[in-house]
Predict the structure.
Amino acid sequence: MSTTTSPAASVPTARTSVSATQPAARRTRGNKLAQWGFIAPAVAFMALFFGYPLVRNVVMSFQSYTPKTFFTGEAPFNGLDNWRTVFGDDLFGSALGHTLIFTVGSLAGQFGIGLALAVFFRRRFPLNGVLRSLILLPWLVPMVVSGVVWRRILDQDTGVLNSFLGLFGVGDATPWISSPSLALFSVIMVNIWIGIPFNMVILYGGLQEIPKELYEAAALDGASAWRTFRSITLPMLRPVITVVLVLGFMSTVKILDLILALTDGGPADSTQTLGTLTYQNSFVQLDFGAGAVVGNVLILISAVFAVFYLRANRSEGK
Amino acid sequence: MSPRYRHPSARKGTTIVTAPPSGAAGRSRRRSISRTTAVSLSVVGALVAGSVLAGCSQQRDPDVYTVLNSSTDESFHRWDAKTLATCSEQLGIQIEQQSVPAAQLKTKALRMASSKSLPDVLQLDASEVPQFAEAGGLTPLREAGVSDENVSRSTIDFGSYKGEWYGAARSVNTLALFYNKDILDQAGIEVPTTWDEMREAAKALTEGKRYGIALSAGGAEDGVFQFTPFMWSNGGDETDLGSKNVAEALDYWKSLLSDGSLSKSTVNWTQADVNDQFMAGNAAMMINGPWQLETLNTDKDLHYGIATIPVPKAGEDSVAPMGGAVLTVANTGESEREKTAAKIINCMTSEKEELTYAINSGMVPANENAAKAWRAKFPELSAIADQVETARSRTAKVGDRWPTISLALQSAFQQALTGKAGSEAALDAAQRRATSGE
Amino acid sequence: MATSSMLPAGKSRKQRRSWGSLAAGIVILLIMMFPLYWMLNTALQPKAGLVEVGWVPTHFDFSGFTKAFSDQGTNLLTSLLVAAGAVVICLVIAAPCAYGLAQFRLPGAKSIVFGTLITQMVPGIVVANALYSAYVSMGLVNSYFGLMLADASLGIPFAIILMRAFMVSIPREVIEAAEVDGAGRIRTFVQVVLPMSRNSLITAGLFAFLFAWSDFMFALTLNTTDAVKPVTLGIYQYIGAHVGDWGSVMAASVLSAIPAAILLVLAQKYIAAGITGGSVK
């Protein structure tokens, strides 16, 4: 796929050069070293900043890691005790369920709306760039602040959302975040709001990479807008879509600060996710071992997801 | 400095460099790893070299003493700075104040403990003392030389764990019933003293957008703090959440909701939200604490009164929770520094400093003499002073298990209030959850 | 869709359409911005608390702003400096790696991509906890450089994944051609690959900036004094253990969004101009 669609401008130069690469074999060894040089700093950085904490987190889940540990440095191994505690807790199952609903719901909303906006902003109109960049503004607001603002907007009695809906005679005091059956939905809604700019910007960047010639050809063939979207935009955008979804998944599944700011996991644990559970275990109860277990479950879930990503990548490479 | 300082962090330093770049990526790259490591090492080396130039090593400055608290907001920070300036002059030492957001204080202190960079004086919420004391992170105050002169028995208990005194309170606070005088007068309603009266009053005061009462049933410590006076005054106990007495207290809260005199948003509110609602005139009464006085007094048109929290039956004792922060001496292992830390605490809890602090913050001084002076100065706050005298500490009975019980309890009352479960079933489940870890 | 610009439609019709799009764009923006408007609205009516705010501020009260400006000025500068430093570190480290993973056929490259993805899952607080001990021993606590490094870590895995996805589509032939012309690997990278990937570089840089700008965890963890205090920490000047001065908080948030918003508008111009988009215009 990718060979047929590579930017037209660069293809001619490329053709002529194919036969001229024989001295490369001699340089292979030096080459490899130089090549690793490109990658090594990032790998070292990630090992420092993520690899080490990750390993520590895994080890911690098999230890009795309590406040005492911080003072004595001793964290005796306790086998599967932490795992048993966590899996034995009724909350774990429901938190896992909430996490999945939250992730799927958020991703669907963010991606759908983000893609629609990205396509919309390909149109040429005045102030396009300014509007497009201002949409990123919600990102600049600290979560502790936007959490409070949203809490007030969604308040059942005094919230502006309900008074706005009231203007149309609907939404009679909807308990957005004060009812266990609606709270998860509302939190997803706010998270979609937060995630749209990210999705839009990346997808818009991807759309810009698609050669205009393809659209011209489609227009000449008289393809409908929907058909053009399905047979040119979507397939061409696939690598970027995968990236957006994977990164979105990774940051959504572990969500913590938004939920803490909005509902604190409540009411009645209805917005309790694995993220808030690990927070409660580690930083409220100070049972760091149990917190690490939940953290590891999260990491495991995303490892599975990462494998899918790599699979998707491999099929693209051909 | 001494090897004790270097030890744990130095060991971690080596682990960083030799750990595989990431768990899963390690094996497949084993062959080329030596080269990678060489490059990584040089990168790390460069970073370290850069950092040595950039900043000096993090060790305790022998001349500077630090106080870690959660007074991030401007006014509390300023009051503490003033007190510390006085103490600094008095003791001839340099004192530094570090403030971190309240929710992060515990973790921050633990992290500092692991790198042996604990502050000298650590201000904790009293309910956090057991967790730290149990971990061996605190030095007993009497051992360090903190004076308990003129400190009441209950205040000592408040900062104690397993019979040892760890936390010296400067002031204590509690919950009380705040009411809007104008609204009550207009409706011709007396300040309620019993549950029935409060329920009737709340019903009568509910009108249009205004609710009769506001309280916090939020899913965090705020909500549990507010539930305790109802639970305790009714004879309930945190060691037995499944008891009838606790369920009755919860049913009482539910009755306020079903009467429509309490907003359903109560399950989302923190105590600060409750105060906002009260100030905006959306609630005629509220359960809250004296730390709101500063904010309440900014509105000159708001006339409010304070009463003790109503009790189940007339004549019973109103048992409210005792709250507030305490000053502890962190176990730094250096007895000389700890002795100085004790002197700082003695200065901060001296009658004069305590009174100033208490007047500023609206809380009741812990020192008995200072409390008398405070009472004389603020007769209108006597309900709070009365409530403090009978107030009960959350951790006295359950110690470092309090956070677990608190989590179970908040989940239970939220389930009952939102109709997800009946009071008794929810509380039974909470009791099981609270004791499962034992 | 994009076809609109290709159709030989009449100029006036095209213009009308573009004004219609502008109107639609503004509506979208208004919906997306509403919570921010509400923030501004609250900031302008500090007296009202957060409960009783009117739809529009009836009397403007800038006291929240003047207070926030005088309190947070330095913190804003710190935020800018740290975020900018983090972007530089992030791109310098991530771009070569993304290129290597996309174009070199290295054994184990796949595992590195996998590892990079997994890093996204390590909870921030776990990283912060581990880093603190390491930073103490390296003397990086309370230093600008230390916070920049840590904040860069928020963007690096993301930047690698993003740029790699873009760089995979650079035709091998282009790179080989440059090398045949005698350019070394580094020169090829700097003179051919980077300009071609300008689009993704700026996008990655932008997000690295936003990640660093909104960081709270590292700023809190890796500082024990007020020496390096970004605005996310500074805002706590108005939020205490018991009380919150929400008018000032909102004002500070609005203020802190302004410099970053200007940067966003500037960067956005480049984001639009991709390789192909640029050649067509």
Notes: Chain A touches chain C through 125 residues (CB under 8 Å). The mean pLDDT of chain A is 81.
